[in-house]
Amino acid sequence: MPKMKTHRGAAKRFRLSKSGKVKRARAYKSHILTKKTAKRKRNLRKGAYVAAQEEKNIKKLIPYK
């Protein structure tokens, strides 16, 4: 059976944690930052986990991570 191809877009956006959960970055941190409060921008720096419903689909895209 041939090797599976990794979805390169997904590989750049998601990482697997040691427990097998899928980690992601938060959105809304790239532009129009002047109107956002410092607290809001600070909280956007923190990572988050992908919702459980989406986890199975993401793991298919990044089979070798």
How would you characterize this protein structure?
The chain has 65 residues and is an alpha+beta fold. The protein is built from 3 helices and 3 strands, in the order αββαβα. The protein has helices at 8-13, 38-45, 52-61, and strands at residues 14-16, 22-24, 48-49. A 3-stranded antiparallel sheet has the order 1-2-3. It is elongated and about 50 Å long. The model has no long low-confidence stretch (mean pLDDT 96).
Outline the secondary-structure elements:
Blueprint: H1 8-13, E1 14-16, E2 22-24, H2 38-45, E3 48-49, H3 52-61
Antiparallel strand pairs: 1-2, 2-3
Beta strand count: 3
Ends distance: 19 Å
* Unreliable runs: none
Structural class: alpha+beta
Instruction: Give a quick account of the main beta sheet: strands, pairing sense, barrel closure.
Output: 3 strands, antiparallel
Radius of gyration: 15 Å
Chain-averaged pLDDT: 96
Helical run tally: 3
Placed side by side, the strands forming the largest sheet appear as 1-2-3
Query: What is the share of helical residues?
Result: 25-40%
